[in-house]
Structures are given as C-alpha cells and as structure tokens.
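Handoff note, outgoing to incoming analyst
You'll be picking up this chain. Sequence as last confirmed:
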Amino acid sequence: MQPVQPRVEPFYHEPTGTFSYVVRDVDGTAAAIVDPVLDYEARAGRTGTETADRIVQYVRREGLSVEWILETHAHADHLSAAQYLKDVLGGRIAIGGGIREVQQHFARVFNFEPAFTPDGSQFDHLFESDERFSIGGLEARVLATPGHTNDSVTYVIGDAAFVGDTVFMPDGGTARCDFPGGDAALLHASIQKLYALPTETRIFVCHDYSPGGREPRCETTVADQRRSNIHVRSDTAIEEFVEMRTRRDATLALPELIVPSVQVNIRAGRMPPAEDNGIAYLKTPIDVLGGAR
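Most recent structure output, in case you need it:
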C-alpha cells in the first residue's frame, strides 16, 4: 500500500536560506506548519512578521485549521515564529525531547532567569523517537535524528520527510556537527535512518544555500540522497564521513544569528521576559561561543 501524499507548500526566507512548510491533509482542512521563521534585523534588534504572515495568509485563504507547529530542532540560524503563529492561528508547538539537553546547556551559557526551567515545558508537546501522531487524517511519525544537534528530529508525514538540518540538498551535503551536543558519528547513523525509508520518499530540507548560484530548492528524494549526496552516499563509511565532517567543521564560522536565535528558540519562539523597565533583552556572552575565526 502506497503512503498518502500530503500537500506541501514551501515558504522561503532568503536572508537565512530557510524553508518553512505548510503540510495539508489531502482530504480535509487540517494542517501543520514546519520550522516557521520570525524576521529579525540584528543591527536594530527589531523583529518582524512579514515572512510568517505569508503563512497566515495562505492558511486563511485555503481555509485550513492548524493543529501542529513543528520544530525539527532549536535552530541556530533564524528565530522561530512558532509563538506568533500559535497566537494567530492556534495549534500546538512541538519539538523533540532532546530539547531538554539543549536548554540545560544554553540556559547556563546565557545565564537565564531563575524562573526558566530547562525541562521542555515551554513547548506544548515533546516528541520521543518513533512516536506517532496525526494531522487530520494524515498519519505521522517522529524519527530521532541527532548529530547536528541532540534535539534534531525528522517528521515523516505520509510519503514526505521533513528532515531539518540532517541533510541538505544532495549538492549541499550535510549540516555541521560542532554545536554543543553535536556528533558526526551520530549524524551518520541518523542519515542511515533516512536512507532506510522507501526510496521514493520525498525529503524536504530546512535550508538551501544555492550551491554554485543555482535557484533555491527544497525537495529531493531518498533515492537522490543515497546516490548523490556529496558528503554521505549509501556506501559512505562512517570513518570517512566523521573525518570529512570534523575537518570541515573546524573551518566554519558560527551562524550570524546564533546568539539571538538560541535564546528565543529554546523558549519555543518567545522572547526573554521583559526587565523592570518593560524592555526585553537578548544577551551576548563574551569569549564563550566557539567557531572558526
């Protein structure tokens, strides 16, 4: 029996190379939003909702009912619009259970307020590996795919897999593994989980940085990845991958928005609480975060 083909509408955020998605039940109005982006102007510390409002307009135009807002992980390169979209459209914000470890680490780095509890309770639901859920009549399941981060998950919804940063398009390879909790050997194992899915499974990536100057692309297949991924094909040995990934990661600068992104994203898209002057602040730790210079 062939898996259902959900309707998938992509939304591209050019400043961060991020793809967000609306996934729709084929026979109803139920929908989920995957990895939504909040606009952020770093020079002014100013947020905006223009990108998220494109999703709002689409959902309303199509008469959809948002049941889930799904994060593949706590992103380090863009701020999440999950809380904004929940306020406007409803739905439950969910992420992988590994977010607890990410929160524990970064709550210390940023010296979060004592009231912050690193137990994932800021999210409406924490998924564990192999957990199943539904989007209307669509059946979905969660694959834990750590390695890039230890909270990374893939959402398999019908014949579509939303992989976050586990892999990019085949000519983009794979994501870095040098963040706290990252592990190249774990990423290799996670990719093997993806490669074990049916070869026709559609893979939707979270980022595309247009290698060679081509147009941004968001969709590939398991077969394409197994055959053509420039970092890890179906026959790439774990030792070869770990050596490549470790060497490459040592040359990478940190993402431009990692400092604001992490502080917001581990709060499920909320800003830090306002201080006694009514203003919320994002902190910058000095000489703490790594990355090539």
